[in-house]
Structures are given as structure tokens and as C-alpha cells.
Write a structure and sequence with these properties.
heterodimer, A: 300 residues, mainly alpha, 77% helix, globular, disordered N terminus, B: 308 residues, 13 helices
């Protein structure tokens, strides 16, 4: 490598003539400026609708209609109170919190158990079980929609938190197991073996040693599932018909579609903003991990 | 040490596997059988009708309209999104200026590239529902952001009833879909371009290639893996678009089914009209389409792998 580099000046004419360098400099700066120009245009296109909805959430209805481009004359926090209480965004929000918390925890527990066993133990049928779980990623959820509705109905779980939690968790298992299996394979086996020699049971080794060690992987897959479940719309739409059990995505869409936004424009903007907040918080906290994780997930 | 190994394995696998069997495997399998019946749901008497549902489906004009809309989306979304994302990620990776000596402009990341990525990516973590509700306000004919903007810059003539007109409705859906997904692919491509050794560009530029040539002959072949992933993902995603269409467009499904898509047609048949057999037949067709499209997308985008 070093010899190659030393060869260079001998075999090739020195390329950097002062004049061309200068010209390239100017061209480079111009190109850079143009790049910024294009990038800013798209950044504006992404942020303006979002900011507009946030600002509108603080306006009165007439203000939204007559002066869409100005800041509100008075920042009306009562829009949020009204959305939370009267439009029942509050109860939808709490339903979402319950279902998503249950779904994420159950997914993590079930998936890490399965992934650990599949990644760490040789036994007949290991591969078959692995591909049965992971193969679920191949099928579009729409294929299962009708039968899934009846499975949940026959178990008496329609319109229940448990029903949604179980469906969320099982639907997320394929990807989570795939991800965690790869993760557990990279963990050192020696710690577990030492613990077993010291008389620890397999169960103890898993809960006391492997799970704490796997924390980074569990956090990644937990964030991933949180976003997916918080944003889920199709499954609750099918499995929840009782408005008191609506999750937030569903409740918000229902307010927009059925009641019509004309009745309370500003309240709906407030509801929209409320439903964005948890995602925004998680995004700001874990931005790097989310972008890396989601694109890596796409590459699976 | 191996004592209790199988008991342990069984104790960890049994419950998850049973749940997975009940809520994932069995619905997928049942779907294929239900598709062959005339099941209307609540009565127990579903009779086996063979392929009748599929025969009816292929003669159903609404199905063909929906499929045509899906095809339009599934060709246009990937093209627009990939071109935009490649453009922006090239700007982020190579748009930097400054530096003297041989490490010249053209191979530097742009200042603030990370910031752009953070902003662009944000819509990708929002739920489709939020995006759809938001854009319904944007497209709102009287007080919406888009028409308001057109008036502001004096283009009143271009004001439209975006979602209510069958000529613009599908394009409006397309726009939202592009808006929501470009950021994801910018991050994907930027990461891929970032892992290409800089020396390759430098030697390319030294040899007299211009920016476009380096992009075409160097960057594109070297990030082809990411490109292939993007194509497959976007194509499969365009088969869905259920939530966007269902929330965003009037009907839902738009004026004259202008924005109906296969997924929405399935949903309506199942949960509005209780035609569960028919809906399952649509589901099986969608599954077949997904499989075929995945294979086609992989085949069409397959290339010699470039090692570096």
C-alpha cells in the first residue's frame, strides 16, 4: 500500500495545476450552494405541512379559515383540552398506551425466549421451527385479515385489550425473532456455561444473564415495535368496533372521516398534534438508532 | 450440565409457538380455504364453490379498476421516490465544498447533511393515519394549505378540488405517498454511498470524469444492493396504500373508484358487505401478486455484484 502511494508521483504527472484547482474550487462551491438549495426546498416541503398543523392547533376556527399563514393571535391551549376530553382523544390515547405497552412487552418476552433457544441450542427441528417463525414475514397481512377476525371473535377477544395485544405481539414475532436470533448468536456463550457449572438452571441463566446482556438488542427491537404498534391502523380497524376501545390512529381517522372536520377544525388539529407527540419524543431520543434500525430492517 | 435441556427448550418454545400458530399460521392457511367457499360470515353454512370466486373476481370491473390504480402507483411511486432519494442523497454525500489540494470538492459530504437526514426521515416514523389526516387538511379545497399556497403566489387558476376530482385524486394520493417515503430512502442511500471508499471517486475525478459520469459509472453500480432493496420494498408497499386511500379519499375509494385499490376493495367486501369468501379470494390474489412482483422486481434489478 505504501509503496503504491510512493509510486504515484513518478508514474503520473502532478495533476493539480493551480489554475484548474481554483476553477474547481469555484465550481465546487457553486455546486455546493445549489445542493443546499435543493435540499432546503425538500426540507421546507417536509416541515411546512407539519408546522402548519401545529400552529393551526393553537388557532380558533375562524382564524384557520381567514388567516392560514399567520401565527395565532392568542395561543389557545383550550383546543387541546377540548380535543382530549370532548373529542375523546384522551381515551383513545390511553387505549393506545395500554395496548402498545402490552404488545411491546409481550413481543419482547416471547421473541427473546424463542430466539434464545433457537440461537443457542442444537436440537432436532431447530431449523424447521426457525423458518416457521421467520417465514411469516413473507405473507401480506391482508391475506390473513378475514380469518384473523374470526379467530379473535371465536376466542371472545373482539373489542378487548387482550385481543389486540395478542394479535400485535404475534404479528411482530417473525421480524423480532429474526432480529434477536442474530443478536443472541453474537453473545458470548462462556458466561452462560460458567453459570450452569455453578449450578444455575437454564431458566436462571436466561433471565439473570442473557436478558440483561441482550439489553441493546431488546431496546432496538422494542423501539421498532413501539413505532409499528403505535402507528397501527388496519388491525384495530378490523378487531375493534366499540368506539370506547378505539386506539388513537383509529379514533383520529374516525373523527376526520365520519364526523367531518367542519365541526371542529382546531380541535382536530390539536388531536393530530397529540397523536404525534409520543412518536416525536421517541424519534428525538433515539433518532440515530431508529434510522439505522429501520433501514437495516429493510435490508433483511 | 445438559440436564433439563429439552425440558428447558420445550418450556420456552411451547407457549410462543402455540400463540403464533393460532394468530398467524392458522389465519394464513384458513384464508386459502375460505377463498374457495361462498361464506357470508355468520351462518355456518358455507359451501365449497371451487374457483368460482376467482372467476367472478376476474370479471369484476371494480377489481380491474382497483388493480389498474395499484399498477399506476406501483410503477410511479418507485420511480419518483428513487429518483428524488438518489438526487438528495448524492447532494448530501458529494455536495460539500472547500478543502484544497487533491482532496477536492465533489467527494465531500455537505455541511449539515445529518440535519437534512433527520428532517427528511421524520415523516417515516409518523403513522400513515396521521399523514393522511394531515394531508386531508392540506388538500382541503376551500381553506387547505395547497390551494392557499397557490393563491398566495398568484396561481389561482391551478386551484383544484384535489381529492374530489377523479382526474387529480389518484395523483394526490401518489403525492402523499412520495412525501412520506422519500426520507427513508435518502437515509438508506446515503448510508450506502457513505460506505463506498472515497478514493474511488477521487481517482475517477482525477481521471477527468465529471460528476454525472462518476455518479452513473461509480456510485450507482456500487450501491446497487441498496437500490434493489428499495425497488422491492416500494413495489410491495405500493400494493398496500390501504390506509392512505381509506382515510384520505372520499367514498372512500374516490369519485368513480378513481382511487380504489385492491386492499381497500378487499376490506370493503369483507367488513362492509360480509362477503368473506370473495374477500379471501382477493387476499389470495394479492398474495400471488406480491410473490410474482417480488420475484420480477428482483429479476429486473439483478446485476453483477460489484466488489470493492
Amino acid at each position: 500500500m505504501t509503496t503504491l502511494r510512493e509510486d504515484r508521483p513518478v508514474t503520473r504527472k502532478p495533476p493539480a495545476q493551480p489554475r484548474t484547482t481554483e476553477r474547481a474550487d469555484i465550481a465546487g462551491r457553486g455546486f455546493s450552494l445549489a445542493s443546499h438549495g435543493f435540499l432546503i426546498v425538500w426540507a421546507v416541503m417536509v416541515t411546512v405541512p407539519l408546522l402548519w398543523s401545529v400552529v393551526s392547533a393553537f388557532k380558533s376556527d375562524p382564524e384557520i379559515f381567514t388567516s392560514p399563514w399567520t401565527l395565532p393571535s392568542r395561543w389557545r391551549f383550550d383546543n387541546f383540552v377540548r380535543a382530549w376530553n370532548q373529542a375523546e382523544i384522551g381515551s383513545y390515547f390511553l387505549n393506545s398506551v395500554i395496548v402498545v405497552a402490552g404488545g411491546v412487552i409481550l413481543t419482547l418476552l416471547l421473541s427473546s425466549m424463542v430466539a434464545y433457544v433457537l440461537a443457542r441450542f442444537q436440537f432436532p427441528g431447530n431449523r424447521i421451527v426457525y423458518y416457521t417463525f421467520v417465514g411469516g414475514m413473507l405473507f401480506p397481512v391482508f391475506l390473513a385479515l378475514v380469518p384473523l377476525f374470526f379467530v379473535v371473535k371465536n376466542l371472545g377477544l373482539l373489542n378487548t385489550y387482550q385481543g389486540l395485544i395478542l394479535v400485535y405481539a404475534t404479528q411482530s414475532m417473525s421480524f423480532s425473532i429474526f432480529f434477536l436470533c442474530a443478536f443472541f448468536r453474537t453473545q458470548p456463550a462462556s458466561l452462560v456455561e460458567a453459570a450452569l457449572l455453578d449450578g444455575c438452571t437454564h431458566w436462571g441463566a436466561f433471565f439473570r444473564i442473557m436478558l440483561p446482556l441482550a439489553k441493546p438488542g431488546l431496546i432496538s427491537i422494542g423501539i421498532f415495535n413501539f413505532l409499528g404498534m403505535w402507528n397501527q391502523y388496519l388491525l384495530p380497524l378490523v378487531l375493534t368496533t366499540d368506539p370506547s376501545k378505539y386506539v388513537i390512529a383509529q379514533g383520529l381517522a374516525n373523527l376526520t372521516v365520519s364526523r367531518g372536520y367542519r365541526s371542529d377544525f382546531s380541535g382536530l388539529f390539536a388531536g393530530l398534534v397529540i397523536s404525534m407527540i409520543p412518536v416525536l419524543v421517541v424519534y428525538v431520543l433515539f433518532q440515530r438508532r431508529i434510522a439505522a434500525g429501520m433501514t437495516a430492517g429493510a435490508l433483511r | 450440565m445438559r440436564y433439563g435441556k429439552y425440558r428447558f427448550i420445550l418450556s420456552f418454545l411451547l407457549l410462543p409457538f402455540v400463540l403464533y400458530l393460532v394468530f398467524v399460521i392458522s389465519p394464513y392457511l384458513q384464508a386459502f380455504y375460505i377463498a374457495l367457499t361462498d361464506w357470508q360470515g355468520f351462518s355456518a353454512n358455507a359451501s365449497f364453490v371451487g374457483l368460482a370466486n376467482f372467476v367472478r373476481l376476474f370479471q369484476d370491473p371494480i377489481f380491474w379498476i382497483a388493480l389498474k390504480n395499484n399498477l399506476f402507483l406501483l410503477i410511479s411511486i418507485p420511480i419518483i421516490v428513487i429518483v428524488l432519494a438518489l438526487f438528495f442523497s448524492s447532494m448530501i454525500n458529494f455536495g460539500g465544498s472547500g478543502g484544497t489540494g487533491p482532496r477536492k470538492a465533489g467527494v465531500r459530504g455537505i455541511a449539515g447533511g445529518k440535519f437534512y437526514q433527520v428532517v427528511y426521515f421524520f415523516p417515516c416514523v409518523l403513522s400513515v393515519t396521521v399523514i393522511a389526516v394531515l394531508w386531508q387538511f392540506v388538500y382541503e379545497p376551500k381553506n387547505g394549505l395547497l390551494n392557499g399556497f397557490l393563491s398566495l403566489i398568484g396561481l389561482d387558476a391551478f386551484r383544484q378540488v384535489w381529492l374530489g376530482d377523479d382526474k387529480t385524486a389518484l395523483a394526490a394520493v401518489l403525492g402523499v405517498s412520495v412525501w412520506g417515503s422519500v426520507g427513508f430512502y435518502v437515509v438508506l442511500f446515503t448510508a450506502a454511498m457513505g460506505s463506498v471508499p472515497r478514493e474511488l471517486y477521487e481517482s475517477g475525478l482525477l481521471d477527468g470524469a465529471n460528476r454525472l459520469q462518476t455518479f452513473w459509472h461509480l456510485t450507482l453500480p456500487l450501491i446497487w444492493d441498496a437500490m434493489q432493496v428499495a425497488i422491492v420494498h416500494l413495489v410491495i408497499g405500493a400494493l398496500d396504500t390501504f390506509a392512505l386511500v381509506q382515510i384520505l379519499t372520499v367514498g372512500p375509494g374516490g369519485p368513480d373508484n378513481a382511487t380504489n385499490v385492491v386492499a381497500l376493495y378487499l376490506f370493503d367486501n369483507a367488513f362492509t358487505y360480509s362477503k368473506f369468501g370473495y374477500a379471501s379470494a382477493i387476499g389470495v390474489t394479492m398474495f400471488a401478486l406480491t410473490l410474482v412482483l417480488t420475484i420480477v422486481a428482483f429479476r429486473l434489478s439483478r446485476r453483477e455484484r460489484v466488489e470493492y
